[in-house]
Specification:
By secondary structure, the chain is mainly alpha-helical. The chain has a domain at about 135-285. It contains eleven helices and no strands. α1 (about 25-35) packs antiparallel against α7 (about 180-205), α6 packs antiparallel against α7 and α9 (about 230-240) runs antiparallel to α10.
């Protein structure tokens, strides 16, 4: 049986954006890790700095609340102890801890201010990533093109490797044929391909790409994102899906799908380039 993988031909089930789940920090850190694995480390340094500041605020607020509770307990214990009463000292202690402790009026003012500041920092970090989305996606496109070029340059593998049912079987056959290095390259590049598309998906979930994902002349968005020459992929992709995962990008390349990472504008430009030679031929025929 073919090994499990994400079936780009399957009907996608709508999922809430990971940016709408109240955990911008988690989404940003996931994206940062995927960008680093894709070969683009450090791109989210500034949003991560804001997240770190928000976490520092929350931790400092927690510590201060605990300290205030301890001071309040000590002041109350002094009232219960034998000896002279110092109500003025108790009043001073009460005034000092009031901004940090819950009361009948609601949450403590100091913590509310810290929570609000932390929310603003996280919101600013998220909006910063949203503003970077197109630039990051363009970088991922360039990296993906490099990955595909490296995949295309891997030496040809024996037919038995291509028809193997699992990656393990394909690996064994490649090693026996003396092509362990070629197989290792395909595994590494396939992992990087997956990481690039995982990062691109998270960027698209920001909602900044709605105009870039419209279907073009019947091109399914799921296919258009992966293949510039998507028409043959409609019929031939099931064959590629049955291959061991490390072979799929090479299989798509060899079938002329033009694998990569694309948006609507890329397809428009590709179609324009395809039409231009035909126009030139018709012009020459008309003039001849």
């Amino acid at each position: 049986m073919p090994e499990p993988f994400i079936d780009v031909m399957a009907t996608s089930v709508p999922q809430p954006s990971r940016w709408d789940r109240g955990d911008a920090g988690g989404a940003i850190r996931t994206l940062d890790a995927e960008l680093a694995k894709a070969g683009l480390p450090g791109r989210l340094a500034e949003p991560l700095r804001l997240l770190t500041r928000a976490e520092e605020l929350a931790e400092a607020g927690r510590r201060e609340k605990e300290a205030a509770a301890a001071r309040m307990e000590a002041a109350t214990a002094a009232l219960l102890a034998d000896g002279p009463l110092d109500l003025a000292a108790y009043g001073q202690a009460l005034a000092g801890v009031a901004p940090w402790l819950d009361s009948e009026a609601g949450a403590p003012a100091a913590l509310v201010g810290i929570w609000n500041a932390g929310h603003r920092l996280r919101s600013n970090a998220q909006q910063m990533v949203f503003g970077m989305a197109h630039g990051l996606h363009a970088e991922l496109q360039r990296v993906c093109a490099q990955v595909v070029a490296e995949v295309a340059a891997v030496p040809a593998l024996p037919q038995g490797v291509w028809t193997a049912a699992t990656s393990g079987q394909a690996s064994t056959l490649a090693i026996r044929a003396g092509l362990e290095s070629a197989w290792s390259s395909l595994v590494r590049l396939g992992d990087r391909w997956d990481t690039i598309h995982a990062a691109a998906l998270l960027l698209r979930e920001t909602g900044q790409f709605q105009q870039d994902l419209m279907d073009l002349d019947g091109c399914p968005t799921e296919l258009g994102l992966l293949f510039l020459n998507w028409q043959p992929a409609v019929e031939q992709l099931p064959q590629v899906r049955r291959m061991p995962p490390p072979l799929r990008v090479r299989g798509a390349h060899d079938r002329g799908f033009r694998p990569g990472l694309y948006l609507r504008a890329d397809h428009v430009a590709y179609q324009a380039r395809a039409v231009e030679p035909r126009r030139g031929l018709l012009a020459r025929l008309a003039g001849g």
